[in-house]
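Priority: medium. Attachment 1 of 2:
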């Protein structure tokens, strides 16, 4: 259960209410993280603007790659809500079920190409506190991405780390967006490595 709940009677400012209305129209429900962030309206507005900028059509990164990266970062941060909603985004962008299920084992999966592996390695190095981005990894990344794309890739990974750590700390539950129950790993896999409903 979410550690902090927002009472139904909570009064959000008009611009937060407009955003929540749009979420209800788009997803069929208001997303719990939006209700939580909305309790700090100025922070909420800044986050919404930043996310919209990173997730724009003109990004040098493909929508499918951005969605895959957000799922992987969320798995590493134990955010079941983010895995759920971003897993659904991955599928909407035409990624196969098999590729999504194979995400934790992307290094050995036939579904991932070298550029995707480099981006995912970069995301893991940024996310895992026991790792660092070294020169060899960065050189590999440069083989596949221009500098502008690397800057946006870094920003998107950093944003997803903030978002998924926020949700994981507050124990925000998944809302049932992704139809895939688990990865290719066994049922003993950690919750972070699964695509929970």
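Attachment 2 of 2:
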């Amino acid at each position: 259960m979410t550690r902090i709940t927002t009472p139904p009677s909570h009064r959000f400012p008009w611009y937060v209410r407009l955003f929540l209305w749009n979420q209800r129209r788009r997803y069929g429900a208001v997303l719990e993280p939006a209700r939580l962030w909305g309790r700090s309206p100025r922070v909420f507005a800044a986050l919404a603007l930043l996310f919209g900028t990173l997730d724009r059509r003109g990004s040098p990164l493909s929508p499918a790659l951005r969605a895959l990266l957000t799922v992987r970062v969320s798995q590493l941060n134990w955010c079941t809500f983010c895995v759920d909603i971003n897993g659904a985004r991955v599928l909407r962008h035409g990624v196969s079920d098999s590729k999504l299920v194979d995400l934790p084992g992307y290094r050995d999966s036939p579904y991932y190409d070298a550029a995707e592996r480099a981006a995912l390695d970069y995301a893991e190095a940024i996310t895992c506190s026991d790792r660092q981005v070294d020169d060899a990894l960065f050189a590999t990344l440069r083989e596949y991405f221009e500098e502008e794309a690397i800057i946006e890739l870094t920003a998107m990974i950093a944003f997803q780390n903030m978002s998924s750590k926020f949700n994981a700390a507050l124990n925000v539950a998944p809302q049932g967006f992704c139809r895939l129950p688990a990865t290719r790993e066994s049922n003993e896999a950690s919750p972070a490595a699964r695509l929970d409903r």
